[in-house]
Amino acid sequence: MKILLIGSGGREHAIARQLRRSPLLSQLFIAPGNPGTATLGQNVPIKETDIDDLLKFAKTNAIDLTVVGPEGPLVLGITDRFEAEGLKIVGPNKDAAQLEGSKKWAKDKMARYGIPTAAYESFTDPSAALTYLRSNTRYPIVIKADGLAAGKGVVIAQTLIEAEHAIQEVMVDKKFSDAGTTIVIEAFLNGEETSIFAFTDGKTILPMVPAQDHKAIFDGDKGPNTGGMGAYSPAPVVTDAVYEKVVERVFKPLIEGFQRDGIVYKGIIFAGLMICDGEPWTIEFNARFGDPETQVVLPRLKTDLVKVFDAITTGTLDQIHLEWDNSSTVCVVIASAGYPETSDKGRVISGLNSPLPDGVWVVHAGTAATPSGDIVTNGGRVLGVVAQNETLDAAISAAYQGIGQIKFNGQYNRTDIGAKGLARLL
Ligand code: AMP
Ligand code: GLY
After folding, report:
1. What is the rounded distance in angstroms from the CA atom of residue 65 to the CA atom of residue 371?
2. Atom 2 (ligand 2) nearest CA
3. Distance from the CA of 144 to the center of ligand 1, in angstroms?
4. What's residue 321's pLDDT?
5. For residue 193, how far is its CA from the centre of ligand 1 (angstroms)?
6. Residues 74, 91: contact at Cβ < 8 Å?
7. What is the arithmetic mean of pLDDT over 327-349?
């Protein structure tokens, strides 16, 4: 099968790596890809949001199946365009992708389907939002831009003054342009976060193993939020009982509700959850795999990923049974100086060819290859070191051993990835 994978991050390197394991794969193209994906298939220089050119490429090259990594093209309607031409594509259509593209849409659906989520109100008028905030006495409170804001559209306001400032920035000053025309204000949930993904063909939903991301830039979950500084799977905060609740109270009602409302959702559903005293609450849904969680979830999948993706497009996911490895996987992200505010480019990365411990590999994200063959930094999150081992403890040690081999100017990584999981296992 000829597959086109869209995206260029660590997530896409991890998806490519898993696709490569399938005997069903004949050729793999990645648009635009990165130097890591270039070792697994052929990179194609087309931007992920350039839907016309992606469609043309898929038709010209007789691509059998397209897999969409990031949310941008989904929200723009890439799936509708491909399906209109009779092409198979993994990812929800424009209507269903509102699950990630509009926080208000997603919250309204959660409320309608009885999915546990924080109490909320939505606003399009800044003065109405301010009146509401002034009558609210419970802080912290969470203020969210409705649309896509590259993971930066959420403010956790500790005081009324911070909340008023957020309304000014998001709704009046339009910090996220139209993404902040509507906002959601919701109650703060106090607990431990986890990410659980599921495959769905719109009828059957197959949840994956849980992972935990580390969103804050500094150790101890301090400092501003990033795209994710590391992850591990499984996440012990998700006990079997919690997992069962997530399946029964979150995933099943969502897909059954979509069916009742005539929303056809085919692809990946990412549930971002807060576990509060053993009860799962939904913080948000995304319409795609997470990054860096994918780097730790997919290596544990024993079932052929090409088969799963194909079944999503043909509506035969009921024929698939997912099998998982019992190992633990850890991914530690190395970022460049200044991240998440800025990022530094063009720093030469050394140590990529040094031998790594068994069960350790590097996933590229913000890297680029120079004409002279060097690999240089090219973004905030530069790469991830992934380790797979029998225990979480061993996987963490191996990942940090791997990190020790990689050097570039200004490199930064958290030193406590997986620590919350280890503490739960003691
Ligand atoms: P989101 O973009 O919705 O994932 O929000 C970004 C981050 O803000 C989440 O990963 C949480 O850490 C935090 N967050 C969002 N909503 C809430 C909430 N209701 N209570 C507590 N933390 C939240
Ligand atoms: N790691 C969180 C995300 O992909 O949105």
Report:
1. 31
2. 290
3. 9
4. 97
5. 9
6. yes
7. 94
Is any ligand 1 atom within 6 A of the Cβ of residue 186? yes
Furthest CA-CA distance within the chain: 62
CATH topology for the 328-425 domain: Glycinamide Ribonucleotide Synthetase; Chain A, domain 4 (3.90.600)
- Tell me which of 3.30.465.60, 3.40.50.20, 3.10.20.90, 1.10.3980.10 is the CATH number of domain 2-93: 3.40.50.20
Distance 388 CA to ligand 1 centre (A): 28
Name the residue with the closest Cα to ligand 1, atom 6: 154
Asked whether residue 138 carries a pLDDT value surpassing 90, the answer given is no
Judged against a pLDDT cut of 80, whether residue 151 lies above it is answered with no
What CATH architecture applies to the domain 192-319?
Answer: 2-Layer Sandwich (3.30)
Q: How do residues 64-99 score in pLDDT, each as one tens digit?
A: 999 999 999 999 999 999 999 999 999 999 999 999
Closest CA to 192 of 105, 292, 275: 275
Residues contacting residue 4 through CB under 8 Å, at least 6 positions apart = 29, 30, 31, 44, 54, 57, 58, 61, 63, 65, 66, 67
Q: Residue 228 CA: which ligand 2 atom is closest? A: 1
Beta strands in 354-405 (DSSP E): 360-364, 367-369, 375-378, 381-389
Query: Is there a contact between 331 and 230 (Cβ–Cβ < 8 Å)?
Result: yes
Q: What lines the ligand 2 site, CB under 6 Å?
A: 151, 213, 227-228, 286, 290-291, 293
Ligand 1 pocket check for 152: Cβ under 6 Å? no
CATH 3.30.470.20 residue ranges of the chain are 192-319
Distance 364 CA to ligand 1 centre (A): 26
Per-residue pLDDT tens for 197-229?
A: 999 999 999 999 999 999 999 999 999 889 999
Give the other-Cβ count within 10 Å of 321's Cβ: 7
